[in-house]
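Hey there, shall we discuss this one?
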Amino acid sequence: MIKFNFKAAKTFILFITTLGLLICGVMLSFKGQSGSATATYGVAILCLIFTSLQEFEWFEGFGVKAKLDKKIKEADDAIKKLKEIAIPFSELLLTQTARSGRLGTMIKRRERYRLVKDIEKPLLGLGVTEQELEKIKKDWYGFDLFDLCNPIWDNLKVNLNAKLAEKRANLAIINIADAHKMHEEMRQLEAYKEILKKIAYQNNLHTTYQDYANFINNCSAFDQKEKEKLLKENADLIADLKYYCENHDFRRPEYWFKKDDEND
């Protein structure tokens, strides 16, 4: 006679429920419903944790009262399992938070920053190391870097586009030989714009701030006076980038938060 295993059935049901919640969370994310998606991910994490707590004998009331069924070592094993579960799901949650406030969603930078700090605290308390946390926040850093790069990128593009517009305006009044040279200079300006785009999208926490300074210093489209002017105009923005690359935090958080506030 086959003996029905209620414990295994309960675990299987919880696992299927968790899987369904994760799928719902992904669908909500694609629809731009970041708040609902985050809540769904949270419930999924709780379900997955309950499927993993084999080391605990019983639960009571709305709080969790656990009586260990074996030795202290088994409690350590349970904590290790919770940590292993928390890391990938926290990465998913932080990635979702990082993407919020974009593509029509409404979470502002100030709120996203607070959410990330609130998530960090319990993870560190659970025993997640700084190195593991850095890995979890990879996507978060990438989006912050892009935000920090944007004003520098825009400023330099404005200057390159102005030079392009000037050359296009002069094409009609020069001879064929000079026009050929002008076309080559215009092609070079377009190439410089592509380099700027690559710097913004490379998500390099080690070199991004230096890449912009190097770009200005090495760009042949600007003369020395223009280079000095651009370096001065972008000095604070490049300093913000440098600080973020070295400390993984904002040098002037209120400056970045108020950009969202001004649009309210």
